[in-house]
Design brief:
By secondary structure, the chain is an alpha+beta fold. The chain folds into 2 domains: about 5-40; about 50-115, Roll (Nuclear Transport Factor 2, Chain: A). Helix content is about 35%, strand content about 30%. The protein has 2 helices and 5 strands. It has helices at about 5-40, 50-60; strands at about 60-75, 75-85, 90-100, 105-110, 110-115. The model is unreliable at about 20-25 and about 120-130 (pLDDT under 50).
Length: about 130
């Protein structure tokens, strides 16, 4: 015998599904944090503080968001920081930064792309870079 789904049962079902989804998100977040910590300890990535200091010097403004991700290109894998900066001129700049050495792999600002900028001290911009 099947019981009809009353509002109370729908609410209970929705709550259970939400809790299951949230528990997977928390676990995934913990696993991501652990992987990032191990990469830092192994010397595979620069500390976030170092990356942010370099980004803030090269791209003045307010850092809005940072993500550390594993980038898969063909058979090669590398860690990258994805950094969003709200520039002092009012534009949003999205950067892909090599987490091992701090090199900007690419950036987008208002639809424009600039690639290969180094965040190392003393870097001289290439022709066309700002």
């Amino acid at each position: 015998m099947s019981l009809p789904f009353t509002p109370m049962r729908w609410g209970t079902l929705s709550l259970c599904l939400a809790l299951l989804a949230a528990s997977g998100t928390v676990r995934s977040g913990e696993e991501d944090h652990e992987r990032a910590r191990k990469a830092l300890e192994a010397g595979e990535v620069l500390p976030l503080k170092t990356i942010l200091e370099r980004v803030e010097r090269a791209y003045p403004g307010q850092v809005m968001d940072v993500e550390l991700e594993r980038d898969h290109q063909g058979s090669a894998e590398r860690w990258i920081y994805k950094v969003k900066v709200f520039g002092s001129g009012g534009s949003l700049v999205r950067l892909k930064v090599n987490a091992r050495d701090g090199t900007v792999l690419g950036s987008k600002s208002q639809g424009q792309s600039i690639g290969g900028r180094s965040l190392s001290p003393g870097h001289q911009p290439l022709a066309g870079e700002r």
